[in-house]
Design brief:
This protein is α/β, with parallel strands linked by helices. The chain is built from 6 helices and 7 strands, in the order H-H-E-E-H-E-E-H-E-H-H-E-E. It has helices at residues 18-21, 33-46, 79-83, 124-134, 156-159, 163-175; strands spanning 52-56, 71-76, 90-93, 109-115, 135-145, 184-190, 193-201. The longest helix has 14 residues, at 33-46. Bound molecules: S-adenosylmethionine.
């Protein structure tokens, strides 16, 4: 499958390995409280108890509703952050810019979440294709983002776009898989921060 981003579009200002950049844990919030609360409310509408959830590009927080009663698997780059995440039942460290094949069975998740991180993916076509593979038909993918970022680690395609064009880009990532129904875009303000989320459902077979 051809990649969505060209070689130029996937370039980052800081070329160093992602594993190196994320070697030190960051126990900080990457978005403000109103954004986090809005994301939790969105998750509450998309998740049901008993769901098996993959939190892709996770850290020490997953923004899930406190009442959520299901299995949560975390995936990220920093083991200390993931070990400190109280929402996770299990977790795995994997650099998605080095290897885009997720270490999970086909159709083994009801939901895949990716919070405020999609801008760091250099091979989003391959990642979203594999994300679709691990999602069951009818399962949901929620990709959220604000206007905040580690600018030196975001791909050029993200840096050069405004918020609406970024939403279009994430929709292209989803659509490139051919595995999802038409994605919906949530665009609002959450406090002083833009809240964007692309919500896509895996096509039922
Ligand atoms: C801005 S933080 C967001 C963390 C978390 N999702 C949240 O909502 O706070 C970006 C996360 O993306 C993950 N990440 C960045 N580059 C990655 C890569 N190449 N492969 C896998 N994960 C990556 C890092 O582990 C980091 O925790």
């Amino acid at each position: 499958m051809p990649e969505v981003l060209s070689d130029v579009e996937r370039t980052k200002l800081l070329q160093a390995d992602d594993a190196e950049f994320y070697a030190q844990p960051r126990f900080v919030h990457h978005v403000e409280r109103p954004f986090r609360d809005r994301l939790t409310r969105l998750y509450a509408t998309e998740l049901a108890d008993g769901h098996r959830v993959l939190d892709l590009m996770s850290s020490w927080v997953s923004h899930l509703p406190e009442s959520f009663d299901g299995e949560v698997v975390g995936h990220g780059l920093n083991a200390e952050e993931l070990a400190a995440n109280e929402s996770l039942d299990d977790w795995v460290v994997q650099d998605l810019n080095a290897d885009q094949t997720l270490p999970f069975e086909d159709a083994s998740f009801d939901a895949v979440l990716c919070a405020v991180s999609v801008q760091y993916l250099q091979y989003p076509g391959a990642v979203f294709a594999d994300l679709a593979r691990v999602l069951r038909p009818g399962g949901v993918c929620v990709v959220s983002f604000s206007n905040r970022l580690f600018v030196q680690k975001a791909v050029r395609a993200w840096r050069e776009r405004d918020m609406d064009a970024r939403a279009d880009l994430v929709c292209r990532y989803v659509e490139s898989t051919g595995a999802f129904d038409a994605p919906e875009v949530v665009r609002e303000m959450a406090g002083s921060e833009p809240f964007y989320a692309v919500v896509a459902r895996r096509t039922r077979e």
